[in-house]
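quick one before i forget lol
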Amino acid sequence: MTISRREFLRLMGLAGAAGMMPSSVFAAAKQPADLYEVPKFGNLSLLHITDTHAQLNPIYFREPNVNLGIGYALNKAPHLVGKRLLDHFGITPGSIEAHAFSYLDFDTAAGKFGRVGGFAHLKTLVQRIRDDRGPGNSLLLDGGDTWQGSGTAYWTRGKDMVGACNRLGVDIMTGHWEFTYLDEEVISNITDFKGDFVAQNVMVREEALFDYKFPDFEGFDEDEGNAFKPYTMKQVGGARVAVIGQAFPYTPIANPQRFIPDWTFGIQDELMQGVVDTVRENEKPDLVVVLSHNGMDVDLKMASRISGIDVIFGGHTHDGMPAPTVVKNAGGKTLVTNAGSNGKFLGVMDLDVKGGKVRDFRYRLLPIFSNLLPADKEMQAYIDEVRAPHKEKLEEKLAVTEETLYRRGNFNGTFDQVICDALTTVNDAQISLSPGFRWGTTVMPGQTITMDNVMDQTCITYPETYRREMKGSDIKAILEDVCDNLFNKDPYYQQGGDMVRVGGLDYVCEPGAGFGKRISNMTLDDGTKIEADKNYVVAGWATVGSKSPGEPIWDTVAKYLRDQKTVKIKKINTPKLVGVKDNPGLADYLG
């Protein structure tokens, strides 16, 4: 079958509007040379990045082989992996797109297609598309999780990423891990940011309003209680565009509230509907956009409950979705997108907007292959400058890996196992617990693991480790609580991370069971059954409440790797899963 490029894009737009992508579209596979040819359409373009996690340089990143959809989410995007994902979106196996969107044949494909991301390469593509659209016809949106995830971001308190985003030309952003810096650092970074920071769901606590620390901050509204601007208006392509911010609603639960004591968060559908209604009535926009860090499942539910939103550009759950999902609601339809992570993708939505109505659209989620896009010289010079003071530390060679080390997936990844093994070994513990973070880059077989790689996996502002005794019942309670966060049937009770990673511990997990009933048959590595009333020595890190007493986790992992010299994982502590046979979010599972 042969189709013209114009017909190809027309079919993509129609398929996206239908919430699916027919195989006939992507079967007409493009060659890498024209991967980034995105013809103009309509009168305005919205470009979207999210969850870059401070990855300034190109990286490897393996997509998950486990992203389970339970109940309402079964057989639906984003809970599709491997061949099921390719079939759903009509992507040709073995193609460059197949490597970008799935974990299949990762090692071979990564060797063929090379690294992804890198702000210098992203800058080249952003500039190319914006130049093609013409001045005043595009916006660049950043969904947050931008200031955290690397050593340089940690040491500069996010300033390196503010500078990078200013050079990239980000117009509007919202946040999540941005709020894991101290509140005064957050305000300072937003002040230095040249775009607009929007977050309609972040409020100043009522008791803090009487003596608020940042009364002169531009985004603060004392009458309404908003800590930041809830939305911003832009004139784009002759249309009035409203962009409303939705910061991660569970920040004080998932991350330390002690850093940001005066701010509250939340989903707050009524508040969002009120903002949308106010914007539509007072601003008379042609297009209403929500820039969200909810996570895709939460965005899908919000889109079904809130009317008046044309598009949600989502983040947080790191789902690289080739096409939008169309959600029906009382007011019509809302497009919901999610643009992956680690600087790996650039979402491009071209819209034909006129008279307050979206008449048509085209959407592409473009993978950033550094081999195919030349580095922008100015951006690369900035990146080199940022890294120069820390270069020696970042480039320290710690060990060599014999296998692919990755994190992404509902349960243990191989780099997670390295972290867990480091915790048990260095701390002489029986069991280790490590958070189910979704950020963290991939290290290829035969590659030297550097301190840079370790920081990419562990770099947070509360990295302290602990070693303590816990009862078996307490360990089970932790696993049950996190598992409910991941697999609760109501998306509004999900916080978007993956399952806590474990070392020295095996268990059975039934994701579809009710609260308190998902975890069973807990045993130590030697098969000894975990007893509810017995104490066990547990090592871990990243406590959300009070600060732990131990060294930063990266020091623990570095010690372990220096001693190991070569990494070959002997055992990976993935749970045995029950009740998920043939789930399209499960493939090549080791448990």
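fyi Residues 422 and 556 are 6 Å apart (CA to CA).
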